[in-house]
């Protein structure tokens, strides 16, 4: 299907005079009924989509060993009333749970992967056997349980019971699942095409295979209303809402349906990013030869990626300096971050929060750019986080405004107020503008970290009697 075809609008336009601002933070996760009465789209699946294919073969064993993580005990902290997350005046009749201000044991399953998203109020767990379980908010079917009911405890996703899930990503209201055959399934809100199934069916209640027939996929990622997938050959493909240029296809997808109605050309199937650029100080643009992308991370409306030469590229919404180019301009195609394009600053990992980005260089330095608090100064270009100089960082999680890092044998967290317990620092110090050790996790070996809008998921190793004894000193959350 041509990406230039005009499609039925499913999103209200913002103010005509200026570029539409990002959704107001306090109501980012409110139910959005803008598209409720939109005319139904006339898109159809492309030929061949959904046909029976040859039996997909598992990814190479050497690769799977790096992608499949060891399992452990799930810990959770923060706001766990999913109906209230990100809403100013939510009305709920559900039983309310107090916020968890310290890491708390949750579920008896051994978990190898626990994932949420920086603007997500839902969660996906992958058990030791590779089974996907979901819980949290579900107003668009993002839990993949074939209903729209909020789920408080981890529940097996029926459509994926016979699959071995190795990767997951959560957008604001949609979810991607990656299996060991390099196949991607999606569910949830699809009004902007962010599920990549080839059409604009508003909600997908059960995981559906995305409309992609290329090389096997090895990583998935989600922004608020867009998705990114990385294939085994190093190719990046994006789909969903093109606003701010966040798909990297050199367009923001806008067109006027009438003289006053602004709409978007949504990308309903994965489309490969083919152009990477660098821009000189005088504004001269030249292409960069990128043969292979090795890692990436998505924020709310931006993406940062690393290539095989440890160079870093960013694109999408440029507000608050989150792209690291020392200017707040949107980037429609991946642009080289010049700050890291010198010796000793090669980047080996990247993690994006809602409006900021964190990268680790190959000599262990942690750099941040963007704004991690709701007020105050933004870092328009990468700046080192001096408090973590010399630490050996192995896991990073970033949420709306909070950050948690596992480094050496400690867990360190910080985030400006308001916080809801996602830092795990206890009831006395609920927020911190400077990095602090999470005392309750001293002695816990962290296997995985992920942050949602206002909660944190932690996987602690429990393979020895000492580790189990330490974890049992933490409180247990019971529904």
Automatic annotation (TrEMBL):
Basic residues: bias regions: 1-20
Disordered: annotated segments: 1-39
Keywords associated with the record: Repeat
InterPro entries on file: RCC1-like_dom (IPR058923), RCC1/BLIP-II (IPR009091), RCC2 (IPR028641), Reg_chr_condens (IPR000408)
Coiled coil: none
RCC1-like domain boundaries: 168-458
Cellular compartments per GO CC: membrane
Ranges: RCC repeats: 130-181, 182-233, 234-309, 310-363, 409-462
Comp. bias regions, Acidic residues: 25-34
Keyword RNA-binding attached: no
MF annotations from Gene Ontology: small GTPase binding
UniProt name for this protein: RCC1-like domain-containing protein
